[in-house]
Specification:
Elements (H helix, E strand, L loop, with lengths): L1 E8 L4 E4 L20 E10 L10 E8 L7 E4 L17 E3 L3 E6 H5 L3 H12 L10 E5 L7 E6 L5 E3 L1 E5 L5 E7 L5 E10 H6 L7 H5 L3 E8 L2 E7 L6 E7 L11 E8 L2 E7 L9 E10 L4
Antiparallel strand pairs: 1-3, 2-7, 3-4, 4-12, 5-11, 6-10, 7-9, 8-9, 11-12, 13-19, 14-15, 15-18, 16-19, 17-18
């Protein structure tokens, strides 16, 4: 754990944002929850490089610490109009386009002119950053209130990153954290089902590996030589391959092809066109990966 600097928030209203696009910030982009105005340390969780693997160091997560008390629960940090649907592909997050993220006092940024906002990065932060994946910088953005901004590299770079409130047992806010999706524990699924048997069963296909991942799979015959495969489960479960193997002669594989696909939140749907009628040997083959991203 590395301390990147002190965040001074005179208003108690906080912002997580790309520091290179502060000119676009509006009051509605700040978090709904407020904290007590004050000065708080910003801590970075840095993954150390492994010389044997030639790996680099990365900032895995960034955190503002408000209370030195144990965190018992994490709650996604919402902005006005957002919903706490963390299983959806559109879960609340802030966008990064420069490879950098930051924590700042929302009111201080919003009260600045557009020119002054644009100058924050070039005039106050750029020289402190060297362009590595574990960079950070801090700067004062208001001489009167001493409001500050703390900037840090966003792990692998651009993307959308969710923010979380860390709450104590009593429900008090102890921290605000951004997860950069570095500490991912991958689980792999590779299972096969007999298609004729699967079509005869109206319930979800049953397999221990699917149960571990809380993943439901159903198969439906739409028409002659056409099938629909539906997967419902946690975000990022649906990485991998799905194929249907028909009744080709020995040594040959007759694979179906996808004619339609749809993904929405935790729902993933594929329509397959079969190259030949199903037989008792036709198989549905799932080869999937799910990325579990625990914030600890």
């Amino acid at each position: 754990m590395v301390q990147a600097g002190i965040l001074n928030t005179p208003s108690g209203k906080l912002l997580a944002h790309d520091p290179c696009s502060l000119s676009y910030v509006e009051p509605s982009q700040g978090f709904i929850r407020k904290v007590k105005p004050g000065q708080y340390p910003v801590l970075l969780s840095v993954l150390q490089p492994d010389p044997a693997l030639g790996s680099e160091d990365f900032i895995c997560a960034a955190m503002v610490r408000f209370l030195d008390e144990p965190i018992t629960t994490w709650e996604i940090a919402l902005r006005p109009g957002e919903e706490a649907d963390v299983t959806d592909d559109t879960a609340p997050a802030h966008s990064v386009d420069s490879g950098l993220s930051c924590f700042a006092d929302l009111d201080s940024i919003c009260k600045m002119s557009e020119d002054d906002r644009e100058a924050i990065f070039e005039d106050l932060l750029a020289e402190q950053l060297e362009g590595s994946r574990c960079d950070f910088a801090v700067a004062e953005v208001n001489k009167k209130t001493k409001a500050s901004i703390v900037v840090f590299a966003s792990a692998f770079g651009d993307g959308g990153y969710s923010d979380y409130w860390g709450l104590t047992k009593s429900g008090a806010i102890a921290a605000l954290a951004t997860d950069f999706f570095v500490l991912i524990e991958d689980f792999f699924v590779e299972v096969e089902f007999n298609l004729l048997a699967a079509l005869q069963s109206p319930a979800n296909l049953n397999h221990p590996q699917l149960q571990v991942l809380n993943l439901n799979c159903t198969v439906e015959k739409l028409a002659q030589n056409k099938l629909k495969v539906v997967l419902v489960g946690p975000t990022d479960t649906h990485e991998g391959r799905i194929k249907i193997v028909g009744s080709a002669p020995a040594g040959l594989e007759e694979q179906a092809f996808v004619t339609e696909s749809m993904s929405q939140g935790d729902h993933y749907e594929l329509i397959f066109q079969l190259p030949a009628p199903l037989t008792e040997n036709s198989l549905l083959h799932l080869n999937l990966r799910t990325g579990m991203r625990p914030l600890a």
